């Protein structure tokens, strides 16, 4: 029944009387009375989104597991007499070691029906592992467990994995062998019906067709390890707390499930459309919980529209790949790169992707190729307010409507009273207020949370206010809850709406605590009032609430951004900074430059913002003296933008005094060491711990207090008396290594910045450098072409990452054997980034600097760098024209390849004592196709396939050393060609 605004009270009363609560049920309201009886007899549930469960709905519903956490991670089903004291004991121990909560029935069962305890355990487990051993089918108990497990698979989406020990899946599938005999004996037993045996036989056949593990002739320990690895991967996937008790959602879930039609092995895209607050994301999360385990990989991308605006689509591409591949090291630098990666990695995978809050067609294109980049059997769920996007993409559309009045009332009562029905005095008010929410679950919960515990007078006031705004009622319901907050709670709400939606809760709390806003109590209140949620330690605010919060800030000064307390919109921030028009009103600024363009801002533009307390910027050059910063400033976050060296040396004392760090380096993931720690690690930097020298300083071997081996690069003090430090390489290397993460790049563990001391602490590379083995000790570890080509490929992959996937791309500028370090497994990693330079996407130095306001400190011309590098490896174009690009690294890598092939240095003395450049000597031989003359004489005789591979590498090296930079291959092409050569070497080695 829909209640119009014109006659709200009268129609509420009519609806209220229709229910005839205290009278005898009439024929007209009999259905309502039965419905009410179901509400009153359901068990009390926890607060949140409640679900109405009538007395005849106790059976587990198809979507129930989507809304509740499982009691157990794994249920183990097995024949105890066969495997309890061997295989199961080992599997149980391995699962426990991974802290996987496993249910195991420790009792021997003979001929009983399975107990209610086991039924509950099966229903309460995310994964069921069924171990089929010799005599599994002889136990009616085991067979009944299997029936229940398969029932949960098809009703609740439980993941079921069979393990076949000393029994073949085909035996179960075909119904022959020992299992067939056991089933016949059950048929002969008068206590077992033929129908029951038929169900057992069908269950065994179904289980045999499931994906699982077969021991065969393998080793049990390997099987246990494989089971635990897969179970762990399934359990670690994202699981959403949808709602403790959803109301009126199961019909929606069922409808969308039918559109997904997961039984068919095609690719399907299904959209869930509807207005904001109707519950689209809730349905998507519930479905994700329900079916994600059925796929090889899955990803749920929340709030695609807002995230792409703040961080760019490449961050979403990166998140998708990390989720599906389970590799946290995946990095995406640019959208085009991300498109190629997604297509390449997902094309053969059966995946589930959920894109929540899509508002542009290009988001579907760049994240999924509109369904063209995923493998057969994949499903893509899209939530959106724009049905045109779904139509254009060919997606099936489920248009979601709001709650009916019964469900809205149920949800309202659960939220406001923590019970299924309102107290007597609140009955009519509850009917009227629930109706005003227009069936939107968000509004129902926010309004119910606001009214919880308030007097009946407050309820009447709320009803009168909301009835007075029929055309803006949605906004009024949200505002009435906001206005009920304390001043510091309002400030936290607005900061979240403008700056912290989707951010790490601890990070936001740290910032807000610096502003004396008491975030712990503030977050608690906002959660209780249903204004935010905290999930996976991230703060989430619904789009409707965020829009309301931002509108409140916008109305502070509608036509002039400089008069607003918070600035987050890209154009508004640049307008204020460019026009130097900041005022006392501005308290916080967040600027996310999605495209890594370089913009210059003088810190003087902040001098008018005397109440400024938060600055968060990305990809922005900040320069100037900090004397212009507000005395109220509590947080300056440049951790994702330009580094603190942009402030100049005069800022150092100020940084230490006011913030401890302008850049919170713990968010870079680095540890800050003390000088005392490094003295202990290196025995006071003793000579016996000295490994070598670098441009920045001396490199020492160290052992930390926890026993970890490290390499410590200690900087030179240039002028002790004046305290001048060689900081450039130190800051450059920290700046570079905080941006990169790749298996072929040496990992920075931490740093020292104390008084006149600077040091960098790295992972220890126990096999030293490539130069050590190639030119100093002529190591036997490099006596095979396979090893040399593998090292070349490792280094090439590291450079490929720097050029194509780092954000922004990097030019190493000093590629040589000394800077290629080798780990304990003889795998190569690139090191020493003291000369490195950031570039733009085209592989060139950054474009001219854009000035952002007076005074113009930096001239508007391209960056010019001093010519720096190592003789013999430097690009001739760089030397002649000061043209430094990623192809300069390619040139240096070509020289390194010739060194690996010849065993000679880049610049060496010939027999007459004259200096020779290796490139000049070798390239003529390569051009003639006769490379035997310059190959390393210390290598064993070369075989035909190896010769082909080595010749290809020599040609590649010559191409890398082409005088014209544009004619050189990219590092991506270098990787492909080296990989091909290495495969031929490996094939030759395997043919022995």
Q: What does this 3D model show about the protein?
A:
Keywords: ATP-binding, Kinase, Leucine-rich repeat, NAD, Nucleotide-binding, Plant defense, Repeat, Serine/threonine-protein kinase, Transferase. It comes from Punica granatum (Pomegranate). GO terms for molecular function: ADP binding; ATP binding; protein serine/threonine kinase activity. InterPro entries: AAA+_ATPase, Apaf_helical, Disease_R_plants, Kinase-like_dom_sf, NB-ARC, P-loop_NTPase, Prot_kinase_dom, Ser/Thr_kinase_AS. This is TMV resistance protein N-like. The structure is a single chain. The chain is an alpha/beta fold. The chain has 7 domains: about 10-55 and about 405-480, no CATH class; about 70-235, Toll/interleukin-1 receptor homology (TIR) domain (Rossmann fold); about 250-400, P-loop containing nucleotide triphosphate hydrolases (Rossmann fold); about 485-550, Arc Repressor Mutant, subunit A; about 555-665; about 670-765, Phosphorylase Kinase, domain 1 (2-Layer Sandwich); about 770-990, Transferase(Phosphotransferase) domain 1 (Transferase(Phosphotransferase), domain 1, Orthogonal Bundle). It is built from 37 helices and 32 strands. The strands form 10 sheets. A 6-stranded mixed sheet has the order 19-25-26-22-21-20, with helices on both faces. The protein has a 5-stranded parallel sheet with strand order 2-1-3-4-5, sandwiched between helices. Strand 8 (about 350-355), helix 16 (about 360-370) and strand 9 (about 380-385) form a beta-alpha-beta unit. The longest helix is centred in the C-terminal third of the chain and has 20 residues, at about 785-805.
